[in-house]
Every structure is written in C-alpha cells, then in structure tokens.
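Friendly challenge for the regulars: who can give me the structure tokens for this chain first? No prize, just bragging rights.
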Amino acid sequence: MTAEEILLRDAFLLGIELRLFWFVALLYGISFIIGIAYLVSSHPGTGRALTLGLKITLVVHTALIIFRTFEGMRPPFQNLYETLSWFAWFANATYLYARSRWHDVHIPGFIIAGIAAAACLYSLFTRNPEIAPLPPALQSPWYEAHVLTAFLAYAVFVVSFAVEVCYLRFRTPPDEAAGIFGYIDEEFRRWTHRLVLFGFPFLTFAIFSGAAWANDAWGRYWSWDPKETWSLITWTVYAMYLHSKAIGRWRGAPSSVLNIIGFICMIMTFLGVNWLVKILGIPSLHTYAV
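First reply, four minutes later:
Bragging rights claimed.
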C-alpha cells in the first residue's frame, strides 16, 4: 500500500469516526432535552425515556470507542480528545449501573447526560482528532494504568455529585411514600457515600501510578506541577468527605458541601488546570494536555 493510499484510508476512517462521535454527542443532547422535559413534567414515562436514551447512547458510544481503538491500533485515551470521550462513557456506564439499584429514580440521568454532552462537544469543537505518534512523556506502561484508574474514579465522583444534587433538591419529605421523582430518600443518598468510597482507592492509585509514570518520564516522582497539586487537592477534599461520614454532626449539610467541592476540584484537575496553565503562562510538565 502506497503512502497516498494509507493517507486516504486514514482520512476515510477518521471521517466515519467523527460522524459517529457527532451522533453520540447528539444522543447525549437528546437525552439531556428529555431530562429537561422530565424535570418540567415529572411524568414517569419521560423518566424511563431518559434512562432508555442513555442506554442506547452507551451502546453507540461503546461502538465509537471500539472503532477508535481499531483505527489507531492502540487504547484510545492518549490525548484530551480521546480522554474526554472516555470520561463521558465512564460517567454514563457508572450511572446506569448504579441506577439499576434504585427504585424508579431517573432524575440524576439529567445531570449525567448534560455533563457527558458537554464533554463530547468540548472534545469535538476544541480538540484535534488526528491520531498522532505518542509524545515521549506518554510512552510508559504506567500511563495506561494511571488514565484508566483516574477516569474510573472521575466517573464515580460525577455520579455521586449527581445523586447529591438530586437529593438536596428533590428529596422525599418524611411523611410521603415517594416524591414526584421517586424514592429520593436517605437510602438513595447513601449512594453518594458508597460511590465515593468505591472511587477513592482508584483515585489514590491514579496518583501513585502517576508519580511512578512521572519518575519514568521526567526522573522524579513529584514536582508540585499544577496538575499534580490539584490532584492532591481533589484527593484531600474527598478524604475529608469520607471522614465527615464518621462524624455525626458532619453527616448532613457539611458532607454534601464537601462532595460538591470535591466534584469542582475534580473538574479543575481534569480541565481547569489546562486553562490556567495556558492563560496565566504557568510552567507545567503536562503541557501536552493543553
């Protein structure tokens, strides 16, 4: 096969992938619109349609990730374009798994669909989809372990955040059997703690594997780089959240505030730091992610 034929093939495959990615973003957007309709109408059928929309989107999104893997002949999480897609996929998959344990509660899917749609659109509008050779900093076996565990933790924290917000806004009054969006009670809220408890070890491993990867790439485990610093801040906030669940007077509003702050710190670690580094001209070893 000549170089021209290889370029034509790659361009053809990339065109198919981009169309599929836009379709995935559209499906997340449609699910988000259905979520708005559910928020307004509180009709159970609309809630079920929201969950069904996210299930269909998960299937199509899985096909997109498999296609990208075939196209690049490598795991598709080597740049921000790909990791944004992984972030949306992991968040949706984690939510649907958790939602299967709830009794007729669909409203958190509204938040998940919105976040996933925003991640996909941000990737499509701002990132280069080209499959390029990996930069030297990413050519380490630790990098794959770091990315997979970090994004699994992020996805779990997104779902915990969605559950927390829905509990604070739509919780069922004690004298009612069920609210307009189902049984959003204390048992439902316990999922915020369970999810963070599940995701926290993965975040911890992501930080340690990231340090091992940094030592391979740059010869030192920790350099107080902005990305590293914010990951430590995120870890600390979620550690405080888990600790708050063991203190009686902190189990209510204080733990909810910590959970929400942890989500904000996680978004800062994932995306916000990239913009700070770029806008303020802060030196960073993670400039490949900007």
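The two ends are 35 Å apart (CA to CA). The CA atoms of residues 142 and 213 lie 5 Å apart. Your move, everyone else.
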